[in-house]
Amino acid sequence: KITDNVAVDTALLHYSFDSQNFTAQPMNSTGKAFAKVLVLGADSINDLNDVRIKILQFSSITSADIFDASSGTPTLAQLQNYDAIITWSNNCYANSVAIGNVLADYLQQGGGVVTGVFTYGGGCSGLGGRYLSDNYYVIPAGTGSTGGSSLVIVRDPAHSILDGFSTITTGSYRASSVAIVGDANRVLDWGDGRVLVATREIG
């Protein structure tokens, strides 16, 4: 039961519910929930901080921390302090099986995970463990990467992930796959049909 204690006749309230408790969700001026993000990359500290600075430009993100996944693996308790995780692997993960397991657990707890370049390629740079065995990938596991860039094709212009974007600048490495996992949703493709952005609901 939610009781109006301040005699507001009409209001839009935002809550999360974990099957036992309601938790109020603070909202920004656009009506979107504020988010805490962990930048979990197997990369240099400079590159981790570069991504952190860029995502903090979004008004819906209130804080972002970094964790060098080439030096260690966070616990589930650490990940649960965040609403979303972004991970990529320019270097090897400290333990590709352990990080795959903990990210799978985090997803099952309702967290959001954004995976970037090389995480889908396998080996020490891929997400192993239950992330692989339970197939939480959006771009199929084992997909290679290629250099270069091309024009971008917008497949789902109404998708909320594109809110606030007027231009997209791309380059460097990208997935070589034109395929996505069966129940995933294509948002952006490269001009040659390779996947740029896709989303998938887990759980």
Structural class comes to alpha/beta
Shape: globular
Low-confidence spans: pLDDT under 50, at least 5 residues?
Answer: 1-14, 26-30
Count of discrete alpha- or pi-helical segments spanning 4 or more residues: 4
| Total beta strands | 11
Radius of gyration: 18 Å
Main-sheet strand order equals 4-3-5-6
Order of helices and strands: EEEHEHEHEHEEEEE
The overall pLDDT average reads 84
Largest sheet: 4 strands, parallel
Description:
This protein is an alpha/beta fold. The protein contains four helices and eleven strands, in the order βββαβαβαβαβββββ. A four-stranded parallel sheet has the order 4-3-5-6, with helices on both faces. Strands 8-10-11 form a three-stranded antiparallel sheet, with no helix packed on it. The longest helix is centred in the middle third of the chain and has 13 residues, at 96-108. The model is unreliable at 1-14 and 26-30 (pLDDT under 50).
